[in-house]
From TrEMBL:
Residues 29-191 form the Lipid/polyisoprenoid-binding YceI-like domain. It comes from Stieleria varia. PANTHER family: PROTEIN YCEI. Gene3D superfamilies: Lipid/polyisoprenoid-binding, YceI-like. The lineage of its organism: Bacteria, Pseudomonadati, Planctomycetota, Planctomycetia, Pirellulales. This is Lipid/polyisoprenoid-binding YceI-like domain-containing protein. Transmembrane segments: none annotated. SMART domains: YceI (SM00867). It comes from the Bacteria. It holds the Pfam family YceI. SUPFAM superfamilies: YceI-like (SSF101874).
Length: 193
């Protein structure tokens, strides 16, 4: 009988460790697919036209729990010196201290702090850090449909947000010809092998 009790106790202990340690999870983890994703932006020039650009080096990861969306997490890291507006001279200027100051602030980052499901996607709140300043923002991620292609599971989201450079400590002297507000468009495809 003692042997039976020991077996039962061991089974209970193993089950507790597995559940408590988070080994059993409904979340799927996806890596940012740089081939099928993009982070682009546009800003007003002289308030008469738009300058378009993108960041070519981006990485990230998200954990998607469809049963308990509040447990889902999202993170994104942009290498600021990968800014590309299709004009080498302008890109060089944008890396200087009066704009992104990429030597002092090499990355632009987002880390979620809360997630909730909405109709057609997720509302994700988190810390957004740019130019050394961190502010809480909320992203509305639309999408989330799964697709398996060549044995690779894929999920994609899109979002747009509007930011003011003046809120992130950019040089106010550099705000004028190029408008204060920037519209950022993120299309992210995550892959899980």
């Amino acid at each position: 009988m003692k042997r039976v009790y020991r077996i039962i106790a061991s089974a209970v202990l193993i089950g507790t460790l597995l559940c408590g340690g988070g080994v059993l999870s409904a979340a799927d983890v996806y890596d940012y697919d740089g081939v099928h994703s993009s982070v682009s932006f546009k800003a007003r020039h002289l308030d008469i036209s738009w300058i378009h650009g993108r960041f070519n080096e981006v990485s990230g990861k998200f954990s998607l729990d469809r049963e308990e969306p509040s447990k889902s997490t999202f993170s994104l890291t942009i290498q600021a010196d990968s800014v590309d507006t299709a004009n080498e001279a302008r890109d060089k200027h944008l890396r200087q201290p009066d704009y992104f100051d990429t030597k002092q602030y090499p990355t632009i980052e987002f880390q979620s702090t809360s997630t909730k499901a909405i109709d057609g996607g997720y509302e994700v709140t988190g810390d957004f850090t740019m130019h050394g300043t961190t502010k809480q923002i909320t992203l509305v991620l639309m999408g989330g449909k799964e697709h398996v292609f060549k044995d690779v599971k894929r999920v994609a989201f899109s979002t747009e947000l509007s930011l003011k450079r003046s809120d992130f400590g950019f040089d106010p002297k550099a705000i004028g010809p190029i408008g204060d507000k920037a519209l950022i468009l993120i299309d992210c495809e995550g892959v899980r092998k």
